[in-house]
Amino acid sequence: MADMTHHKFLKAPYTVGIVGAAFSGGQPRGGVEQGPARLVEFGLPSQLSSLGWNVDIDEKFPTYEHLRPPSDQDIGKLKNARYVSAVTKSVSDSVKSLVAKGHLALTLGGDHSLAMGTISGSAAVYPDVGVIWVDAHADINTPETTETGNLHGCPVSFLMGLPGARNIPSFEWLSPCLPTNRIVYIGLRDVDVPEKKILKDNNIKAFSMHEVDKYGIGKVVEMALDYLGRDKPVHLSFDVDALDPSVAPATGTPVRGGLTFREGHFICEAVYETGNLVAVDIMEVNPLLGDQAYVLQTIQIGCSLTRTALGETLL
Ligand SMILES: [Mn+2]
Hints:
By secondary structure, the protein is an alpha/beta fold. It is 35% helix and 14% strand. The protein has helices at residues 35-41, 44-50, 81-100, 115-125, 155-160, 193-201, 209-215, 217-228, 261-273, 292-309, and strands spanning 15-21, 54-57, 104-109, 130-134, 183-188, 205-208, 234-239, 277-283.
């Protein structure tokens, strides 16, 4: 068993609860719902056991089909809103119960709309949780600004309860739980014009690829952790499209100019070292996009990012 960091917000013996969130309703491309099963088949649970964790997983992967409404007409521009709401509510309950027990909640996606569930779940236990959102995209469109109506581009505005993203029909369960100063973005490079305005108007902390190039990843992560507070619980929400498509190609919305393999892993290493983690999301691994080699490469990266966020070190 490896030496484990002291975790300020977890109860010993340290347990990771895996939520296999097999869901793709927040975006139009099929396949991302198969991400969690492929990560598990590749051996993720036993890899985490070898790091010293007790692993709590329902290998049957509860499907969310029973939550699919019989009909789901667009609400304004929003697609599948009732289905996304029902699934994210279920994920929120799962994450909340794990975090409340002092377990680390590890959610494997699935598309990034799931973060409405994961972050509301950890914030229900820790209202001062700080979120590190690693992504090519800001995912902060509101029901008014979204062009596509795909909810994986909107979770942050819902969590914050920004104007236009409050009291949305079918999302009555989700009350604002993420103050605008409790999130830091890393890796942004494809941000819609209205999203840029939202980030600026609300003074939201964001390190785009420009800042990663300018300061280096070490300094960026240090600034991010200082900003959130070194004594506060941390929720890491990692969209694999933050990585350059040459590193993680099998994902729905790849954007060139992304994080290198090491930059992505460095973020996970540094966040783990704080001992403040309460929840980790690994999102948007889509095993149906690209040829087999690309898919395998992306699944391997999903596993290695997770291991690193849970304590695997190079030495
Ligand atoms: Mn995302």
